[in-house]
Amino acid sequence: MKTVYTDKHHLRNARTELAGGELVRPFECPERAEIIRARVEERQLGEIVSPGERGLSPVLAVHDEGYVRFLETAWDEWQAEGFKGEAMVACWPARRMTDRRPDHIEGKLGYYAMAAETAISPGTFEAARWSANVALAAADIVLGGERAAFALTRPPGHHAARDMFGGYCFLNNAAIAAQHMRLSGAGKVAILDVDYHHGNGTQDIFYERADVLFASLHADPRVAFPHFSGYADETGMGDGEGATLNRPLPDGTDWTHFSAALADVLDCICKTGTEALVVSLGVDTFERDPISTLKLTSENFLRLGEQIASAGLPTLFVMEGGYAVAEIGINAVNTLEGFEQAA
What we know:
The chain is of the alpha/beta class. It contains ten helices and ten strands.
C-alpha cells in the first residue's frame, strides 16, 4: 500500500491549546505524523510518495469561499492587530445573537469557529492546504486502480465543516477526497469515520446529499467532544435523508461491541451501491490514548483493518485523530496491515 506524506505538515506547530481550563501544548502536534511515518517505514508497508500542488479548486468544491479566504489571511490579520499570542477564539454568535460576519479578526474567529481549543498559528493554512493535497494524491492512487492507499494527513480534517474550524481541523481532507472521487467518476462514495470523536464537519458537508454516505462510530456526544453533533437520530436531511448513519458508543466500549457496530454500518454501506470507500482513520479509540474512554487494543486495530477490507471496496485511508503516544504508529499501521492481509 502506498503512503502519501509531506513534511510541510511541520508548518503547523501551534504551542497553545485550551484544555481543562489551562493553556497547554496541543495534543495534535508534529510528532504524531512522524511516529506514524516511521512505523510505515519500519514495517515496509509500501512506497512513500509526495503529493503535488492541486490548488484551491478541490477545496472550494466542499468549503465556503469566504471561510477559505479567512483561513488564508487570519494569522496576518491577527498579527496586524498587535496581539502577542496565537489566534484564539474569544466569542461566538451564540443562541439568539446575530449571525453576521464581523470585520475585526476577533469577530471573524468567532464567526468561523466551532470550538475554542484550536489556535491559529503561523503556517496553519499552508499546512492544512498541503494536508488536503496529500488526501487528493492518495485518492488518485485509488482512482488509478490500486485497491487502497494511505493519506498521512496532518492537520486532520473531520471536524472542519463547510465554513467552520475546530477540533484541530481546518480543511476537511476526507470530504475533499470524497468529492474529488465523485467528480472523477465514482457514482457513489461512502465515508466511514472510526475516530473517537464524531466527524461533525464531514456530516455537515454531506448532510443534504445522497451521493456521499457518511457513517460514523464514535463516543457518545452527551459526554464527549463535539457534544452538539453525532446523535443517532441525525440521519440526513432533504435529498440526504437516510444517508447519514451515527452509532454513538458508551464509555468503556471494547472491541466486541465496537466490531458489532462496525459490521452494522459496513452492511449498510455495501447495500447502497457504494463504489469507493473513504475511511477517516482515527486511532484515538485506543485504550491508552490521552483523550479516549474507549478500550481498543493494538491487536484490535489489525481486526479493524480486516473488517473494513471485508466490504471489498477500493479504499482510501485518511489520517484523523490519535495522539502522540508511542502506539499511534503501531495502531495506524496495524489497521493498514490488517486490511492488506485480508484484501
